[in-house]
Automatic annotation (TrEMBL):
Lineage top rank: taxon: Eukaryota
Lineage, opening ranks: Eukaryota, Fungi, Dikarya, Ascomycota, Saccharomycotina
Residue ranges of every copy of the SAM-dependent methyltransferase RsmB-F/NOP2-type catalytic core domain listed in the record: 94-280
Protein name: SAM-dependent MTase RsmB/NOP-type domain-containing protein
């Protein structure tokens, strides 16, 4: 339908999962398999046509293919050797970049894209023992089942401790000892998301069509009500997002926290960063926004400087320009995928 065509994403992003590249995590054999199906290499994702492939310049082992190319029927996909994950959604684990000595909490894990991506950094090759190095939290029991399934397919279920419940209540430094880093990707308005209808149509899943109800309310009034509703919703979401990051910040051994949303609204993005920086307790804990050099420096689209300028004026110890540079934004479609925001907090 027209609806689905309008929802057409420019790229479908797939990453090779080194945790399923036995015995040594070498991704070359999987890439060789992919090259059999995708024979033409293009220099830019905007040049993708069916049967071609783009090698991403920002995230290792990530590739773009044309959205009409069916990949879910491929053996590599079925065996978890490749995972479908939007490019921007790959930024958090890449920025956190945990190594073999790190212990990470993924605060809001399901369906598990960032959890398994994080695992691929901790284990440069498929893990051989059952050492827990990731604590994954997920509040929704149904979604937690999908998470369990995904980490099994991705080959890291014995190294991830899945906890079903509220991260702010269940996760404590006593339970999760030695935590060094966090992925905090909480529920958000999802205003940057598109393309679901299209991919659902490809996968022949049922699409939830919203019924067009009779317009009883005049247009202008409806627009006003919708704006009010959105503001109330964003206020609720941002205070929840703030609490999630603040709880992560309370862990004494943590050095790095990556916060992300798939929202285009400043309320859930730069404003959450501002509220955290202004919080006295957060200041005492010593958290700062990481500089651009630590967060995919070559990615051109950064945070909105005007949001920081509004709060941090002359005489403030914060430089709005530097704060904005420390954030990453991705625009829906224009930047090759969903709308996204990422920032990294660090401390010595
Ligand atoms: N990080 C996931 C990924 O990359 O696949 C996507 C996470 S999704 C944006 C947010 C998730 O947080 C939802 O599954 C939601 O149920 C969960 N959630 C919401 N509040 C939570 C809480 N207080 N504790 C743990 N999980 C929570």
């Amino acid at each position: 339908s027209e609806d689905i065509v309008n929802d057409l994403p420019p790229v479908r992003w797939i990453r090779i999962n080194p945790l399923k590249c036995h015995p040594d995590g070498n991704t070359e054999p999987v890439l060789a398999e992919l090259k059999k199906k995708f024979t033409q290499k293009v220099d830019n994702w905007s040049e993708l046509v069916p049967g071609s492939i783009y090698y991403d310049e920002y995230i290792p082992n990530l590739f773009g293919i044309h959205p009409t190319d069916k990949i879910t029927a491929h053996e590599l996909y079925k065996h978890g050797k490749i995972i479908i994950q939007d490019r921007a959604s790959c930024f958090p684990a890449h920025i956190l970049h945990p190594g073999s000595n790190d212990i990470v909490i993924d605060a809001c894990s399901a369906p598990g894209n960032k959890t398994t991506h994080t695992a691929s950094y901790i284990f440069s090759e498929p893990p051989k023992d059952k050492k827990i190095q990731i604590y994954a939290f997920e509040k929704d029991p149904e979604r937690a089942k999908i998470l369990q399934k995904m980490i099994k397919v991705a080959g890291c279920s014995s190294n991830i401790d899945v906890n079903v419940g509220d991260f702010t209540k269940l996760a404590t430094p006593e339970k999760c000892k030695g935590v060094t880093g966090f992925i905090v990707d909480p529920s958000c308005s999802g205003s940057g998301i598109f393309g679901r209808k299209f991919f659902d149509s490809l996968n022949r899943r049922k699409i939830d069509e919203k019924d067009d109800e009779d317009d009883a309310v005049p247009d202008e009034q409806e627009e006003f009500m919708a704006k009010e509703e959105l503001q109330t919703r964003l206020a609720k979401l941002s205070s929840f997002q703030f609490q999630m990051v603040k709880h992560a910040m309370s862990f004494p051994g943590a050095k790095k926290i990556v916060y992300s949303t798939c929202s285009i609204h400043a309320e859930e993005n730069e404003r959450v960063v501002i509220d955290l920086l202004l919080d006295k307790v957060v200041q005492e804990w010593g958290w700062k926004v990481a500089s651009r050099t630590e967060v995919v420096p070559s990615w051109p689209r950064r945070g909105k400087v005007e949001e920081f300028e509004e709060v941090f004026r002359d005489g403030s110890s914060h430089d709005p320009q530097q704060l904005a540079e420390g954030c990453i934004r991705a625009l829906p479609k224009e930047d090759g995928g969903i709308g996204f925001f990422t920032v990294c907090f660090v401390r010595e």
